[in-house]
Amino acid sequence: MTIEHNLQEIQGQIQSVCARVGRSEDEVTLIAVSKTKPVDMLREAYGAGVRQFGENKVQELNEKIPKMPEDIKWHLIGHLQTNKVRQIIGKTSLIHSVDSIKLAREIEKESEKRNLVTEILLEINVAKEESKFGFFLEEAAEALCLVREMPHVRAVGLMTVAPFVANAEENRPIFRKLYEFYVDMKSKNIDNVNMTVLSMGMTGDFKVAIEEGATMVRVGTGIFGAR
Ligand SMILES: *Cc1c(COP(=O)(O)O)cnc(C)c1O
């Protein structure tokens, strides 16, 4: 199957889920996760209309950016080491994977040097999996409070990587929990925190995630094929 075909398939599924749960499809942004895939495939996706790409490694992102058109919005979705922050500040549209205050402080420091504001999401480990990065939900409110004190970091929402499950329904309670927290935080109107993004759902579970309120879904395999 071609990338264009896969893309139409995923977009069609997003539309029908949105229609079914009474959401506008404009509320859901599809991020094409192109990690490990060659630039040729990214170009093909670009040709089919994709403008938002997700990568999980700083080095790979830096290799791909100069080879692709300038109107692309790049999303960093993988764990970011503090010593690599310097290399990507100013290049991303959004960093989804801010999983510690130490990392947020480093982003603040490097963004200040370049005199810009970096938009981020706090990564939340809703299921408390040992193998995953992210704040526990119980820590997230405090983390948001600390981040709002950083003038060059803007927390615009939350992200989670749900457990790998055979049946996407198993992740519904995870997505629901994060949505509830998201709505709760939105209603509190914390200064410098304007939450509009809820990044959750991948190839296996994006439909359930949209049903539960996702505003960004990160789809790799479904668009580019198996890695
Ligand atoms: C790889 C990855 C995805 C995409 O996963 P697929 O199952 O291929 O859709 C989404 N989010 C993160 C954080 C990833 O690392």
Commentary on this structure:
This protein is 40% helix and 19% strand. The protein is α/β, with parallel strands linked by helices and 227 residues long. It starts with a helix and ends with a helix.
Distance between the termini: 15 Å
The total beta strand count reads: 8
The small-molecule ligands in this entry are: pyridoxal-5'-phosphate
Shape: globular
Count of helix runs:
9
How much β-strand is present in the residues? 15-25%
Order of helices and strands: HEHEHEHEHEHEHEHEH
Radius of gyration: 17 Å
Helix proportion of residues, in percent? 25-40%
Strand order of the largest sheet: 7-6-5-4-3-2-1-8
Structural class: alpha/beta
| Low-pLDDT segments | none
Largest sheet: 8 strands, parallel
Mean pLDDT: 96
Secondary-structure topology with pairs:
Layout: H1 3-21, E1 29-33, H2 39-47, E2 52-55, H3 58-64, E3 73-76, H4 85-88, E4 94-98, H5 101-113, E5 118-123, H6 137-147, E6 153-159, H7 172-188, E7 193-199, H8 206-211, E8 216-219, H9 221-224
Parallel strand pairs: 1-2, 1-8, 2-3, 3-4, 4-5, 5-6, 6-7
What key attributes describe this structure?
single chain, 227 residues, alpha/beta, eight-stranded parallel sheet, 19% strand, binds pyridoxal-5'-phosphate
Short description:
The chain has 227 residues and is of the alpha/beta class. Helix content is 40%, strand content 19%.
